[in-house]
Amino acid sequence: MKNWGIPIGAALIGMMSVVMATPTAGGEDPLLRPVAPDLAPLWLERQTPVRVHGGTWLVGFTHLNIVLIDSGAGLILIDAGLPQGVPLLEKTIEEAGFHMRDVKLILSSEPHYDHASGLAALARDSGATVLASASAAAVLRAGHSGMEDPQRTTLFAYPPVKRLRVVRDGEIIKLGNVRITARASPGHTPGSMSWTWTSCDARQDCVSMVFAASLNSLTDGQYRYADPAHRAVVQRFRRTLAMIRALPCDILITGHPEHSDGAAKRDRQVAAPDNDAYRNPGTCRMLADRYEAAFEARLAQEAGKAP
Ligand SMILES: [Zn+2]
Predict the structure, then answer these.
(1) Distance, CA 275 to ligand 1 centroid (Å)?
(2) Residue 20 domain-assigned (yes or no)
């Protein structure tokens, strides 16, 4: 039996084999087994569904965004949160007036457990296919990150995802009346992916939507971005920041709402659903500026310290 509550040590990575069972009558559902129970409460706090614009909703949690996009011919979700949050997530989706059976695609922004460990349960319950970059798909299939992840030794393993489709940078995902572009965003993790689309509401007001992958440069304290062996990683991270900065970006959503002033926007939107509280065309530039400064500061700090 796997214990998802213990972080994977570097020594364990690559040696793990995970066998997932299907739920048994009256037994524990292995795909809902809690991951990181000590840290999880922050990411499990209930939030009533919020309509952001047109067919785009937030159906996740107070401190963790899960996006739902109604394409008119099925639903698309971005990220899944934690396994133990999936039952509440599914309730919230129904509360917003949608049905789990209509979820066709689940897009993954990064393979860290706080966004991805519920993917296996959510995909099973809906029958949806999970879409991710090639690098993220390898992690999702294994259920744990490898040594290439800057947070490798502090991450938690989780149930592997079976039904996966790899998407490449620039690929356009079509469902119903929605066209979503995959934007490779390596840096925070090698496989991070941002997702962009246009949302039109009933007034034919159309806006550029961005779900930006996490851009923070946290490490486990052992990984060093400034290591000469990671020169290409640093280049890719800088390219990601420049890409996010240049995006048409009327409305920005981040996996962690705290990264884009999510609580204040949500409160304003809930108070007056027509007031477009999420709209702020400068917001991707601000996000990129903030995380670029943090990344450059980390590089400088790492370079000043002996490895
Ligand atoms: Zn992460």
Answers:
(1) 31
(2) no
